[in-house]
Amino acid sequence: MSKSVFDKISIKGLEVFANHGVYPEENKLGQKFVVNATLYVDTRKAGLSDDLDLSVNYGTVCHQITEFLTANTYKLIERAAEELSRHLLIQNPLVQEIDIEIEKPGAPIGLPLETVSVKIHRGWHQVAIALGSNIGDSRKYLDDAVRSIGELPDTEVLKVASYIVTKPYGGVEQDDFLNSAMTIRTLYTPEELLDKLHEIEKEAGRERIIHWGPRTLDLDILLYDDLVLDTPDLTIPHIEMHLRDFVLRPLAEIAPWLRHPVYGKTVAQMLSELNN
Question: Max alpha carbon distance in the chain (Å)?
């Protein structure tokens, strides 16, 4: 779901006296900051019911912004905006995405100006991940991986598919695999999440020696929202997911409606076509 689909709650011109800045006197004396925020939420249920519990209390959010910025000190307003966005997304489960702008009217640059500001957009991302193992206690490796992913900061496990035994893919002679899939929501960027998954693989003793070869643990990002990304280190959607039964079967169990952003087909459709 993109931010254009969500409704918006806007907070404009919230003044906060806080201690952020590169210079020591800024940290010691403090100065005025002005915060503007747009919260992307689904207000439909609140609008129909008139129930505050089904909406986001903008008064509470204003107090959260003030308390956070006064309780912490950062050199850069970029860092203040980043950490504030994260804090508000975690503290307000109904908020799916957020725009934060922090203005610094008293920026000490020695020239007359109205204000300087940093504005960022952050939000939760829906991600599908494939899991596989064919060395040692594969079930334990997958169980440990699911737990480790769930323990990552700013990450929540949504669903985990059943484990299935599958034949090796890629022509390398080796033992059968135990495969699964999971869906998560996270604040990590694709590159940040990939680094975290590689760390979990490394903890499981993963060695990248033979392409498509045996491994203690294999974690692949299949889908990340509706993102299409192709870099030397990461391709999203996973380049061959539509050709792999051992990927589509478990994913179809927990999220058959997810749609491939390039081919336009759902996981259920791709699995059906692969099996025909």
Answer: 71
Residues in CB range of 55: below 8 A, 6 or more apart: 9, 41, 43, 45, 46, 94
pTM, two decimals, is: 0.90
CB neighbour list of residue 150: distance below 8 Å, 6 or more residues apart: 156, 157, 184
| Catalytic site positions | 104
Q: For residue 38, what are its two tokens? A: 């747009």
Please name the CATH architecture into which domain 7-123 falls.
2-Layer Sandwich (3.30)
Residue 182 and residue 160 in contact, taking contact as beta carbons nearer than 8 Å: yes
- Assigned architecture for domain 125-275: 2-Layer Sandwich (3.30)
DSSP string, the chain: --TTTSEEEEEEEEEEEE---SSHHHHHH-EEEEEEEEEEE--HHHHHH--GGGS--HHHHHHHHHHHHHH---S-HHHHHHHHHHHHHHH-TT--EEEEEEEETT--SSS--S-EEEEEEEE-EEEEEEEEE-SSSHHHHHHHHHHHHHTSTTEEEEEEPPPEEE--SSS---PPEEEEEEEEEESS-HHHHHHHHHHHHHHTT----STT---S-EEEEEEETT--EE-SS-EES-TTGGG-HHHHHHHHHH-TT-B-TTT--BHHHHHHHHH-
Structural domain spans, the chain: 7-123, 125-275
Q: Which amino acid is at 237?
A: P
Q: Tokens for 13, please give them.
A: 């011109």
The least confident of 179-193, 198-212, 236-250 is: 198-212
d(CA 15, CA 32): 7
pLDDT tens-place string over residues 8-29: 999 999 999 999 999 888 888 8
